[in-house]
Amino acid sequence: MSPEGPRPGGRSARVQAAVHAAVRALQAERPRHAITVPLIAQQAGVTPSTVYRRWGDLTELLADVAAERMRPDAPPTDTGTLHGDLCAYAEQYLEEMSAPTGRAYLRDVVASADPGRPAGRCDTYIRAQLEIIVARARGRGERTPPVGEIVEQVMAPMMYGILFAVTPIAHPDAARLVEALLTRTAVPAGAHPAR
User: Fold this and answer.
1) Nearest to residue 185, comparing CAs of 147, 156, 159, 158?
2) What per-residue confidence (pLDDT) applies to 2?
3) How far apart are the first and last CA of the chain?
């Protein structure tokens, strides 16, 4: 599969949809260690060789499904300020990804041997959402930090907290990360300074 995914329509898209649906159904009814490629293939109505040929192994398939499930289905909340939008986005992301299902998705994506595919797609999703937030703020005349800085100073620490920290990161921590970023980059919370 190319990094862009299969061509719209056709057998390739049908196979991907059937296999993804089979994985989701099996994940809902049994633990991860009880899910196998032959079981997925049977549920999807394809041969195991089709799954292996397309995804390589179970780890890559689970990473692909997880990345697809992490695709945003709506633009980020518009609160009227950069500070509010970033806090809302960070808190929602933290809530979703620190839940057991979200952590499982993250673990599957991180387990992929090809970080450019599932992990790269997740990075693209996050950056696209942040670009919307930044573009809206600029349209209101607010100064904004670069998206890369938001990723490094807000999203990356949250991801570390979700995946590795003994004490879970909480909503107030997400807001503090946003406030620290905006303070460092001289973008006061709720301010509308000229560009």
Assistant:
1) 147
2) 38
3) 42
Backbone angles phi, psi at 177, to 5 degrees: -60, -45
Task: Let me know: does 86 contact 138? Beta carbons within 8 Å.
Answer: no
> Token pair for residue 35?
């899910």
Per DSSP, the residues of 59-86 read: HHHHHHHHHHHTS-SSPPP--SSHHHHH
CATH of the domain at 89: 1.10.357.10
Distant-in-sequence, close-in-space partners of 130: CB < 8 Å, separation ≥ 6 = 76, 89, 147, 150, 151, 155
Whether residues 143 and 96 share a domain: the answer is yes
pLDDT at position 9? 61
The residues, any chain, with a CB within 8 Å of residue 68's CB and separated by 6 or more, are 20, 121
Non-local (6+) Cβ contacts of 31 within 8 A are none
Domain that holds residue 142: 82-184
Regions of the chain short of the pLDDT cut 50: 1-8, 193-195
Q: Report d(CA 58, CA 46) in Å as an integer.
A: 15
The reported pLDDT for the residue numbered 117 is 85
Same domain, 103 and 48: no
- Give the global pTM: 0.83
The pLDDT of residue 115: 64
C-alpha dihedral (181, 183, 189, 193), degrees to nearest 10? -110
Would you say residue 26 lies in a domain? yes
- Please give the pLDDT value at position 190: 55
